[in-house]
Description:
By secondary structure, the protein is α/β, with parallel strands linked by helices. The protein has 6 helices and 13 strands. Strands 4, 5, 6, 7, 8 and 9 form a 6-stranded mixed β-sheet that branches. Strands 10, 11, 12 and 13 form a 4-stranded mixed β-sheet that branches. A 3-stranded mixed β-sheet has the order 1-2-3, with helices on one face. Strand 10 and strand 11 (206-213) form a beta hairpin. The longest helix is centred in the first third of the chain and has 16 residues, at 3-18. It is globular. The model has no long low-confidence stretch (mean pLDDT 93). InterPro entries: BON_dom, Lipoprotein_DolP.
Amino acid sequence: LMSAELSVLDNVRAALKGEVRLDHKLEHVHLVINDDGSVTVEAEAPSVAVKKLALERIGAVPGVDEIVDRLHVAPANKMGDGEIRAHLRDAFLDELSFKRFDIRERRPGSFQSVQGGQPQSYGSLDIEVTDGIVTLNGRVPGLESRRLAGLLAWWVPGTRDVVNGIEVDPPEDDSSDHVAEALRIAFDKDPFIDANQIGVRVNGFVVTLTGFVPTEIERERAESDAWCLLGVDDVINEIKVAGRPD
């Protein structure tokens, strides 16, 4: 490697080490500078938060113009691809806002329809799972649907990564308001969270969570849901653990 490339890699390592929220949570990181100048990052992260924080810090390093993301999340439960696909298929079929979508899943050899034949389809979703990595494609009428599909994929405990290639048609300009609305929808759907106890502010795609919850598990779950949303750059968790207010 040339000295400039070594300097970039040193700066990347320093950026990861300097983020206190990554302290000892991301080890054995393999970094490579490719011929086109991009940086490949390969490691296993303990959570989506650690994965996204690491990518944000690496992307901010001068000289890093593009990241090849091979930073995957250690699954909560080890599952085969077929089991992950079945869990996600069922989640999509149970989601009321997806009832008018055509849904397909990729099995060996081809895509197969699991929901279709609608008199008027409002969108489409394609599910593919390879080595625990969920790839989503298709077309939906709004950013909330795109984000919800990605969140449902992350909620499958065997998922190692989510590649969300779903298109929004007609296109929408993203905004902090869209993120805030998607997160409120996520909290309403999450059975482990009382959405009424949590306040949400979003500024520049940085989410701030406030409020009171009864357990640390619920506090961590709320933060995890925020990190799982497409487009969220950072999460500031100011939720307090306390008894429910009278």
